């Protein structure tokens, strides 16, 4: 009886997985992909080493990568780019009993952020699995041919060498040569990679030496900003409300409410905590400006709470005139400095 119950439970789990997968695909079954937009293609390592713990987040490398990936996706503007996903690090047994390196083609191209992040959530690091990075790049080549775009941004996150006998560099050169009319840029996040393995990964493209979760978030934000694919309110991981307050005022004008709503949506979906930072120009007394900037930060915090954000996710800090963004010697610069920004608390 125990064995039967166990088998039944496994069958129910598998049926649930199949049902969830089917429901996810229904989210994009009628989507028409605009191939005139660039394709940002994430290639994610799910090999066994990704089960190790990230020293900053306290989560596994896999869960850390998923969290950072989902966060950056929420800051992107899908009017500017499509999204693709390949995960690699799987082992599949052949008929003769030998293991072969395999991978998953998770998403070819979509502009549906909820679908992308739901698929990302399903990624799991595989026990006793290998790192078929070369095969993943070859799969990216197939992607690009099937979904031709004028620009492709290839972003690789991996914590080690190819362990399946392939050559990532050879496959990348093949990808570039077989798609001569596609502008391809490659970014590699080497995640806690041993120094001796850098010789492989750092030759593939712009290389980021990632030590922990904070490094990964910073790198992804930098890439998104550099490629100009983020939402206009985001720059290098900082959200600007673009609420330019009137002189000596903390009143949020109605036309800026939409910008506050956008951050409210981000916090709700990401679960991140945010520090709301208030700033002023340099007109007047420094102490007074510090209090004024605190009032502005508080005003935005209260508006976020009014829009449904949990107050425990927010802290408000006034920085006064000490962190200008523009030149205070001009009227335009002072107007720009009367601002509020939001920073993710890591």
TrEMBL record:
It is found in: Cell outer membrane. Residues 320-346 are annotated as: Disordered. Residues 39-227 form the VWFA domain. GO terms for cellular component: cell outer membrane. Residues 324-346 have a biased composition (Basic and acidic residues). InterPro entries: Bact_OuterMem_StrucFunc (IPR050330), OMP_bac (IPR006664), OmpA-like (IPR006665), OMPA-like_CS (IPR006690), OmpA-like_sf (IPR036737), VWF_A (IPR002035), vWFA_dom_sf (IPR036465). Keywords: Cell outer membrane, Membrane. CDD domains: OmpA_C-like. Signal peptide: none annotated. PROSITE patterns: OMPA_1 (PS01068), OMPA_2 (PS51123), PROKAR_LIPOPROTEIN (PS51257), VWFA (PS50234). Residues 232-346 form the OmpA-like domain. SMART domains: VWA. PANTHER family: LIPOPROTEIN YIAD-RELATED, STATOR ELEMENT OF FLAGELLAR MOTOR COMPLEX. This is Putative OmpA/MotB domain protein. The lineage of its organism: Bacteria, Pseudomonadati, Campylobacterota, Epsilonproteobacteria, Campylobacterales.
